[in-house]
Design a protein that fits this description.
The protein is an alpha/beta fold and about 350 residues long. The chain has eleven helices and nine strands. A nine-stranded mixed β-sheet has the order 1-2-3-4-5-6-7-8-9. The longest helix has 13 residues, at about 145-160. The protein binds pyridoxal-5'-phosphate (PLP) and iron/sulfur cluster. Iron/sulfur cluster binds near residues 130, 135, 172 and 202. Pyridoxal-5'-phosphate (PLP) binds near residues 117, 119, 167 and 343.
């Protein structure tokens, strides 16, 4: 049984190595609007400093900040992290939980919508706060996978015999430390019908040092603990400027293993709603060995309407990139409609 005590023989070896500095970069990621603007040499009047966004403060790692152009208030990477005055707008249809995740939350920490796979909310923490985030109003406090809640989640998985794949999500699952991940997946290893572990993470892009030795051991451990075990990484890049040499190095480490590496993006007004940028994004992903998987249309989450790309334009953009890229570099344009058995592919 999953509840049995598992001997963690040398869990300590899965702790981050001492030379890894990602934890301090992660804990220093919160930044005030003033500090952000002064660092980037951008005048205050471009943004409204009186808007109260304290329930979703600005967060961005040093690795991300250094990829933003200074002096450019419309930089596409800046736009993803800066609270725009338009966040204040209250628009019909833009609500806290448009995906109705609440209805698919059978036990704390589990979101189970689709056949054969489910999502574990490993942590509410992220290294970067993406202003368009579809979980920016998610009730993380009620979904912590600690203590008894973790046992309940594991029991739920154990009882759902058709589940083959566990998606580690959040927040960012890799914001959890190696020791925690190791303990969690060791318990998942005991559930024989689980074959695939999928990691939905932005950290290889916004905190490349996170791919440290302990994480590599963890990956190896999962893959080698059963011949049925597979691993999928779905990273999250929206704009080609997010990919620099340190991201490439992080991905190269992952490529040492037999892992499927995919990317998902969100189509965002003022960030990547442009044919050439989307093409360049696919080509850069290919260059680092990652296959474009999904291009999501924005979920109508409260405070994010300024990122919405109108549906006709989304389709036209997708058609335009499809005409210029090989099929394997064209992500599927998808929308999530609550209650559907899968993401809806937009033709
Ligand atoms: C998007 C999503 C998945 C994964 O869907 P795939 O099409 O397999 O990538 C799984 N569960 C939930 C709740 C999701 O929102
Ligand atoms: S990293 Fe993912 S979960 Fe975290 S804020 Fe960005 S989109 Fe949301």
């Amino acid at each position: 049984m999953v509840k049995d005590v598992i001997k963690l023989k040398d869990a300590s070896t899965f702790e981050s190595t001492p030379d890894s500095c990602w934890q301090s970069e992660l804990s220093n990621a919160q930044i005030s609007l003033d500090d952000l603007l002064s660092r980037l040499n951008i005048k205050k009047e471009h943004f409204d400093q009186f808007y109260d966004f304290s329930n979703f403060p600005i967060r961005a790692t040093e690795s991300y900040l250094k990829k933003i152009r200074t002096g450019d208030p419309s930089d596409p990477l800046l736009r993803q992290i800066i609270p725009h005055v338009d966040e204040k707008a209250e628009l019909p249809g833009f609500i806290n939980d448009p995906l109705n995740e609440e209805a698919f939350n059978p036990v704390p920490g589990v979101i189970h919508k689709y056949y054969g796979r489910l999502l574990l909310i490993v942590t509410g923490a992220c290294a970067i706060h993406c202003r368009y985030c579809f979980r920016r109003h998610f009730p993380y406090k009620q979904n912590l996978l600690t203590g008894e809640a973790q046992n309940r989640a594991l029991d739920y998985i154990e009882n759902q015999k058709n589940i083959r794949e566990i998606i580690l999500s959040g927040g960012d699952p890799l914001a959890a430390n190696n020791n925690y991940l190791f303990q969690l997946t060791q318990k998942l290893s005991l559930i024989k019908h689980i074959h695939t572990l999928r990691i939905h993470t932005r950290l290889p892009v916004v905190l490349p040092d996170r791919i440290d030795n302990g994480l590599m051991k963890w990956i190896e451990q999962w893959i080698q603990s059963s011949e049925n075990h597979q691993l999928v990484f779905v990273i999250h890049v929206n704009h080609p400027n997010e990919i620099d040499s340190s991201v490439k190095t992080a991905i190269e480490k992952l490529k040492k293993f037999d892992i499927l590496l995919l990317n998902q993006s969100v189509l965002l007004k003022g960030v990547n709603d442009n044919e050439n940028i989307l093409i360049e994004l696919s080509e850069r992903l290919f260059n680092i060995g990652v296959k474009p998987y999904y291009l999501h249309t924005l979920d109508p989450v409260k405070n994010t309407a300024h990122f919405m790309v109108e549906s006709q334009r989304a389709k036209a953009l997708h058609k335009a990139i499809r005409a210029k890229l090989p099929g394997y570099l064209t992500p599927s344009l998808v929308r999530e409609i609550a209650g559907e058995p899968a993401k809806t592919i937009i033709q």
